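User: Hi! I'm working on a homework problem where we have to compare a predicted structure to a textbook description. Could you give me the structure for the chain below?
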Amino acid sequence: MARPVKSSPPARRSYDSSRRQEQARETRRRVIEAARASFLEAGYAQTTIAAVAESAGVSVETVYKAFANKPGLAKAVFDVSIVGDDEPVPLMQREVVAQNKAEPDPRVKLSQFADNTVAIAERTGALLLVLRTAASTDAGAAEVWDTLQNERLTGMTFFAQHLAEGRHLRAGVSVDEARDVLWAHTAVDLWNLLVLQRGWSGRRYAEWLTQQLIAALL
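Assistant: Happy to help. Predicted structure tokens:
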């Protein structure tokens, strides 16, 4: 007599994590947007994880799990604001940087650089001023501020080296000097003085910045 064939257990459905990942990303996006709004409206010191969580419609534990603490949340807000989206692609690997590296004309290169500086300032300028104010009394804010300044200095170092390698720097202008000139001209202080306080348009500021950098470096 033939043995009855045992039926195989139903195949375990393969686990598709894409939906969960997208949900997590959407949650992270809502938290960052809520934090950004709170930092701008209430300031750094008055912004709490609880308030951000409530505004984003998530639990406090969710915020802590994703960002660890308020400085971590603030850094995430700036990381997204600097590049303009939450794609996991560093600024130095972005298309705007690749296009600038490929541009052969140093004047056009600096004009593109100025345009990108303005775009970043429009997204981060007000936030940076909030953070700078908080940094004088809050250790966490000071840590984020220092990290952002060091990251910007690193970026300006790479750009200065790129200009030197292309033989674009004027005789007597070292890589270190070019780095410092770029670092100073991309600080939020100039943006605050000329755009926020004196009412310059972003276009006027970009044109002025281009002229300053050409005169100082090329």
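For your comparison, note the following. The chain is about 70% helix and 0% strand. The first helix runs from residue 18 to 42. Good luck with the assignment!
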